[in-house]
Amino acid sequence: MKNEKKELEEDHAKLNYEEKSVRELLTYMKDNSELIADLAYAAIVFENEELAEEVHHLESEMDKMMYQIRLKSMLGARKRDDAEQLSGLLQVASAAEQISDAAEDMVELLNEDVDLTPLLPHILSEAEEKVYTLKIEECSDLVDRKLGELRLESVTGVKVLAIRHERKWFYGPDADMELKGNDMLIVRATERGYRKVHPVAHCKKSWKEVEK
């Protein structure tokens, strides 16, 4: 425990507190808290250690961001009005951090001698949106198309959480991420949304048919 605390203090000492504003840090934390929760869910469903490791990494980054927000808030609260405004932002940041902590607790189950199989049907039945894997075949109409160009989420409701290209994972891919043949996607979607994209990924439909 002492070694972990020392390492965390050393990490904080290396941070450049002039890089981002409190609002920018808060936006980062909000976006990543959602990604961490999704990846933790996927890690449990697929019992995937790589996804669990990314959850641990993102949770560590969230701790660092929270440290920066607290420090910047203390330095920036020169008047009562400033303090009240920053207090509200801190509450939102704290909520995001709590989500990331809970996500990390979830993936810790993978390290325990616990059979998760009986839990999964209950977890999946309670969720309107589920986590799926989706392989992009080389003949798919999605190949060599950017996520931003496809507008997958707005057209089908399917959100791409992670992409495995060859042996490398890309988490929370942005709009410029280009899909390639044999890519493996982890997505969050309703069953209806997933069924729209699946035939396109497997060369049974064109993307234009889905967009109509």
- State the helical fraction: 55-70%
Number of domains: 2
Unreliable spans: none
- The whole-angstrom Rg is 20 Å
Number of helical segments with 4 or more residues: 9
Q: Give the CATH H-level superfamily of the largest domain.
A: Phosphate transport system protein phou homolog 2, domain 2
Describe the structure.
The structure is a single chain. The chain starts with a helix and ends with a helix. The chain has helices at 2-14, 22-46, 49-76, 80-107, 119-126, 147-150, 152-156, 191-201, 207-211, and strands spanning 130-135, 159-165, 168-171, 184-189. A 4-stranded antiparallel beta sheet has the order 1-4-2-3, sandwiched between helices. The model has no long low-confidence stretch (mean pLDDT 83). The longest helix has 28 residues, at 49-76. The chain is an alpha+beta fold. It is globular and about 60 Å long. The protein has 9 helices and 4 strands. Strand 2 and strand 3 (168-171) form a beta hairpin. The chain folds into 2 domains: 2-111, Methane Monooxygenase Hydroxylase, Chain G, domain 1, CATH 1.20.58.220; 128-211, Alpha-Beta Plaits.
